[in-house]
Design goal:
homodimer, about 375 residues, alpha/beta, Dehydroquinate synthase-like, alpha domain, 2 domains, six-stranded parallel sheet, 14 helices, about 15% strand
Amino acid sequence: MTELEIKVPASPVTGCKIKIGTNILGSLWKEIDSDYGKLSKFIVTDENLVSAGHLAKLTSSRDVPHFIISPAGEISKNINTVISIIEAMEKAYLGRDTIIIALGGGTVGDIAGFAAAVFKRGVPVIQIPTTTVAQADSSVGGKTGVDSSLSKNAFGAFWHPVRVYIDVAALASLDERQYRAGLVESVKHAIIADSEYFLFLENNLDSILKRKPDVLKKTAYRNCRVKGSVVEEDPHEKNKRRILNYGHTIGHAVEAASGYELLHGEAVSIGIIAAGLIEQEMGLAEHERLDRIRKILKKLGTPIQLPKNITENEIIDLMKRDKKAVNKWPKFVLISNIGEVYTKDGQYAVEVKPEIVKKILKEMKKD
Amino acid sequence: MTELEIKVPASPVTGCKIKIGTNILGSLWKEIDSDYGKLSKFIVTDENLVSAGHLAKLTSSRDVPHFIISPAGEISKNINTVISIIEAMEKAYLGRDTIIIALGGGTVGDIAGFAAAVFKRGVPVIQIPTTTVAQADSSVGGKTGVDSSLSKNAFGAFWHPVRVYIDVAALASLDERQYRAGLVESVKHAIIADSEYFLFLENNLDSILKRKPDVLKKTAYRNCRVKGSVVEEDPHEKNKRRILNYGHTIGHAVEAASGYELLHGEAVSIGIIAAGLIEQEMGLAEHERLDRIRKILKKLGTPIQLPKNITENEIIDLMKRDKKAVNKWPKFVLISNIGEVYTKDGQYAVEVKPEIVKKILKEMKKD
């Protein structure tokens, strides 16, 4: 055989600017237009954001082509919604010189980010997250995806936003349960990477729960710093990025076992406690550490025990089908200290025997 | 506003190995399995390839999970086929540790390449092109895409194959019209980048048309070298990659005006002559050069005049809607010599006044 090889060049290092403020939504358009004046704009948002007046605030009631996801929420996070968005863009005569602006929570960001990744081989996207979970987590890092009729995130791409605008004032109208569940990702960030941030959360949780803008801006900044530095180091989740999965291995299984009755953050809250118990079981932690974590989650009001109607076996079964499972059993992210992930042979996701998981799950059923 | 910036790291330089041979299809599986033993395999092909026995030859009748596109051809190049492929992969319990193998012509490569780009945020793909157009052009370079119900390639991604295997023996069963039309992209490669290759084509066209393996291997090699070097320099078509569009600006419009009765290569054949006439009109070429090009296309038997039932105005109208048009008029790739693209101010796509295009289109209607 004759052979030749083509070198696919490295992409250039690009930047994602994150801007954080209070009540900035109304002034963003001017900035976006000055930065991306040559591009056509297309907004993707959902019906809740429209009701809350956020779309009108962003556009100052200008007539900008847009797509409103309806119904809002996970139920619309599927490939059919993406098809509808692409067709709406074509009907608006938009081409490759378009920038998509995603205004909303994690679902909107995932859908709009994926649409941007695939529209005519990719157009840039700006993320304007409006929920605690999207501001802390999903808007940064480039993961996008939607569900097929068979499974979650069957379709997806890594597609980094060119800008992320975080307006903490948008959180004011967020439903209390959503608000609190979203904060679990902030707690997770502190646990895996920033002990000072953990102390900050312990000291300021009351103000955060009262949604005081100044403390929310600080929280957003610290979240983006943690998430950003992890993503910079390992954008495609070959190793270190897995640490963001702390509390998620059991968390995802609990979420699915609840039939998605539990919010993602609520399930992760349970998963974080489970990870802490595993650490104790493996001799990686003192009781005092887990008590601090438990205390903060208790104050958040997210669950820290297994719901009565979910059995250990259900969770074990679901874990075997985890998308990151190798030989039908997933690896775990654990910490050695608050702010410091445990590694073994340079790996951030480590083995934990099923028996240990079963044991701690049993413990988590007790009152 | 508080600001921070995340640097999205450069992707590493990666390689795409291209291997060219005769009757290699039956021995590829061993090589793929040795290079990618840890990954599950999933084959995407179409019903024509199955009938021709190519699928069985590739797998040695092993039971490999696969998807057969049916009906074969452009009509299946749409997002619904991609959804069916992804769901078939899920039903086969395939995860991220999967490699997709695309066996077929340009359509199969486009569909399977796009499915690989979006399945669970992207899995690697191997291209095994089996037509003249796919072997010369579409299998190399990473452009993938499928149509929406409204327009061509509305969904797409740049997704480079990790391997391209070119078996020139697969061309033996190709329909004569398809075979000849696909060779137009080879002529294009010679015109834009390699005057020696052009000479080679002039001297060897008889053997190529007789599908003699040795000369076909040389042709494949030269095509991949031209395409590969252009793609290496400009993978995302910011400037130089546009030269691959030679003959395509008018070609695409002619193809659409014919209601896709003309094959892509046939329309590009007309487009190449049109580009040559524009070059003459702009004082960039002698008659002798266009005569050489005309002679080679005549021998190929692809059209070099505008079909009677297509008017100049139809073409002009379609050109205004070209996806690369800026202010409703596309730019042109022209050559200054065979093997050398004309540039103006460092740009490979240059302005040509609509009047010139109208004039030469009129000329192309005459007998």
